[in-house]
Amino acid sequence: MEIYSIRPILAILVSAIAAALILFTNKHKNLRESWTLIAATLKFLIVLSLFPLVTEGKVVVFKFFELLPGVTCSLRVDALGLYFALVSSGLWIVTSIFSIGYMRGLQEHEQTRYFASFALSLSATIGIAFAGDLLTMFAFYELLTIATYPLVAHKETQEAIVAGRKYLVYCLGAASVFLFCIAWTYSQTGTLTFQPGGFLENAADPKTLGLLFILFIYGAGVKSALFPVHAWLPTAMVAPTPVSALLHAVAVVKAGVFGILRIVGFVFGPDLIRDIGMGNVLAFLAGFTILFASMMALAQDNLKRRLAYSTISQLAYIVLGSALLTPSGYVGSMLHLSNHAMMKITLFFCAGVIYVKTHKENISEMRGIGYKLPWTMIAFTVGAIGLSGFPAFSGFISKWYLCKGAIEAKLWGALAIYLGGALLNAAYLVPVVVTAFSRNGQNFKPDESSWTLTKPPVITAILTILFGLIPLLIGWQLELANMAARGIFGG
Amino acid sequence: MNPNMIPALIFLCPFMTALMVPFFHTKRSVSQILTLAALAGSFFFSLKGLSITGNGSVIHHYMGNWTPPYGIEWRLDTLSAFMSLLVSALAFIVIFATGVTVEKECTNAKIPYYTIVLLHVASLLGIILTHDLFNLFVFLEVASLTAYALVASGNDTRGNVASFRYLLIGTAGASFYLLGVGYLYAATGTLNMTDMALRLQELGISRTVFLGVTLILIGLAIKMGLFPFHGWLPDAYTHASDSASALIAPLMTKVMIYSFIRIVLWVIGRNTLTTLGIGPILTVFGTLAIVAGSIMAFMQRRFKRLLAYSSISHIGLIMLAFGLGNKTALIGAFLHILNHACMKAALFLVAATAYHRHGIDDIFDFSKLRGKMPYTMAAFCVAALSMVGIPPLAGFFGKWYILVGSLQAGKPIFAVLVVLSSLLTALYFFKVIEQTFFHRQKENVTVQEGPLALVISTGSLAIGLLILGYFAPAIFHWGFNLLVPAGVF
């Protein structure tokens, strides 16, 4: 059932308006930052207010305009979209607090531009989550690229500028392919609106559809840093750490993964993908990405780069889950989308705290740092163990479903990768913890002043544990994920 | 008021005022206000014309009440109302904006700048309104002559050379056109467009007609700066005074594209797109223009030159869309004419502000502008992103419909090209954006915005692009059967 409401567009606009206000109040620091916090809270509340409606099985709709006969650009909030919106808007609150601590701690330049771009990126992310058709989603993809570009190039060093260029080339190139696919889809089917289970059946012969699928995956896959189009993500780590945290662990890359989930579930549909034999292609690509990125992560000494490769590999977990084409796999993908977000943001926050407090970026220099920053490194440990899929952490639950999906699909290779990947995860994250808590002869005094900086990682670490232990919270997650999967797979 | 007078009034407002302005040429502010009033008049009558023709009806105006095919017919249909609205509105905004820069730039030139401007705009409106091929030539010549004068109006002596070059090439174009009209007249014995269309249907395409059509289209292609006939354009846009290039760049080429489409569809018939191979040829030229224009734009250092080459590339895109012979693409092309004119006007106004206020026209000096003109540069970003085709800005929608049109026409290769043109546009605009915002210039920046009129105009064009983006689909649906009636296409 559809109900018409302006709440979806409000959720998008609230941070766009905040961006404008931030630009106009650049002289008054505290006022400027308060816009971010107000917008973040409001946005989360608006998104949250849609939760009861969606769990009742309703779809909340807001229409923009009819673009072509049969194509109405609209926002449609369904279970999948709401899920992603909750994750990104919820984590934005924490990140906003962290941003303030980080930017002030480092006395960064151009803070106004930074906070405005940040707010705008969140508008784009929620827009992607709520987009009801391919073209609306494309529009917000483009907006996200444009809004995050200033964040990537923020440092304005030659390195940052080059990273920004690389980011633009990758993202705009993919967007062009995406746009081409959309126009092609329209000319074949006359519609672009997402439908659970897909709308492309009988639209063309299997070979053409296969090509279209690959192009679509390329279009969305660049943002999700799937091999072989992942290279922009490690380069983009030159951005300030809160940016890496939210955008390169949550908003941008998750928007890419979300796009793939949409395309698999709502454009092509699992049956069609199985028929044209593309499920295995995607699964192979994702599986390879997991192994490759994990190996690369092992080789990095720069903490943020290691986390970046870890992100690439974890994102591929999600893509692989959707490529399994089974309900459990899809549920697992959705759960991992949020759980990975919580854990990875914790890890990035910690990297940020370390950088502000000690100006260290390389793991080899972090000996004994756990005694200087005890809470931070405990949070890091929680994130690291959770990411490896240890029970009682949220990472375990999503990996459980992913493995179940692999068994249902009888793809033993995928199962092996999931299990082996967990080991690799531990192999590249646990050494960081060990190094941090090794004595190096110096006596560190704990120094965790500035709560805006040091509390957020602790909060997200607690969330990681809560979402792994509290049945009520897990139940909410599962309810939405199951709803989405039911819509796609039927039954 | 008799609606039949509207076409004449649209033209007469600027034309008659042009004759009055010289009396005030010592007082530029008065001339400017008169000019603005005249353009507002044109705008008002265009709007009125659009409200009448908005349901598909056509207003005929017979000069001196001589009925066609003997007399000269002027005709206001939805398309010409749409175009005259665009021309008068943009001319108004540009003239409003550039009052101060004209003051500064045209000191040497002892010409009453505004008279020339008014004659230029009047003749552009004449080109849009006339339904007579020879009358079109007359206005084409007046528009060109005034454009040469405008190009040479600045203090920069290179403008004179550019103007002379423009004159040589432009005259060649006009001669081609006139020769072509001569052939067609010899074959059909008429100059009225509708009449000629009827007779051409009876006659078929004889060798004389073929030659005539070819010459006319080549002439117009030269005038619009379609690659490879674009030689005059970069210099003319670059070395003209900033005020003049902001006026000429968005309008002149667009009106030429309009008359090209008008003649192909209304006179020689849409079938010739395929039978004479006009469509495929246009797609080839369009492709070359997109690629070459973008690459050349990327290589430029001077901002205005970059914009000029960008124009060449986008003219190519519009002609490519027309050449596809698909209605969605065609309406997309008209939408892009509208959007591109607004974007280019905004960008040239930004160039004018940057040069006028800070003496900067080199892209690599744009980093010095950082923080100095926040509003102007914000407007620049909007216009540039719109050029790239970032939704929901207006520039996206023209490209989107052209893209869908080329797929509907069964030519996916051109769909790829349309997408590629966006990427290439991104290449050279992000180069400027990067220079402006991400190259460190650490000094104490004080805000020195441009003159108020410039900022207001640039800003309103930028906001206009947002609004236009929201209404673009509505304009598309509205225009689908009105801009080009079903009988024509």
Write the topology of this structure.
The complex is a heterodimer of chains A (491) and B (489).
Chain A: E1 2-4, H1 7-24, H2 29-49, H3 51-55, E2 59-68, E3 71-77, H4 79-106, H5 111-130, H6 134-152, H7 158-189, H8 206-221, H9 232-235, H10 241-268, H11 270-275, H12 278-298, H13 303-323, H14 327-358, H15 369-372, H16 374-387, H17 394-408, H18 412-436, H19 451-469, H20 471-489
Parallel strand pairs in A: 1-2
Antiparallel strand pairs in A: 2-3
Helix pairs in contact in A: 1-2, 1-5, 2-4, 2-5, 4-5, 4-10, 4-14, 4-19, 4-20, 5-6, 5-10, 6-7, 6-10, 7-8, 8-10, 10-13, 10-14, 12-13, 12-18, 13-14, 13-18, 14-16, 14-17, 14-19, 14-20, 16-18, 16-19, 17-18, 17-19
Chain B: H1 6-20, H2 28-53, E1 59-62, E2 73-76, H3 78-97, H4 99-105, H5 113-129, H6 133-151, H7 158-188, H8 193-203, H9 207-224, H10 233-239, H11 242-267, H12 272-275, H13 278-299, H14 303-323, H15 327-358, H16 374-388, H17 394-408, H18 412-438, H19 452-482
Antiparallel strand pairs in B: 1-2
Helix pairs in contact in B: 1-2, 1-5, 2-3, 2-5, 3-5, 3-11, 3-15, 3-19, 5-6, 5-11, 6-7, 6-11, 7-9, 7-10, 9-11, 10-11, 10-14, 11-14, 11-15, 13-14, 13-18, 14-15, 14-18, 15-16, 15-17, 15-19, 16-18, 16-19, 17-18, 17-19
How would you sum up this structure, described in words?
The complex is a heterodimer of chains A (491) and B (489). In chain A, 75% of the residues lie in helices and 4% in strands. In chain A, strands 1-2-3 form a 3-stranded mixed β-sheet. Chain B has 489 residues and is mainly alpha-helical. Chain B is 74% helix and 2% strand. Chains A and B meet through strand 2, helix 6 and helix 7 of A and helix 17, helix 18 and helix 19 of B.
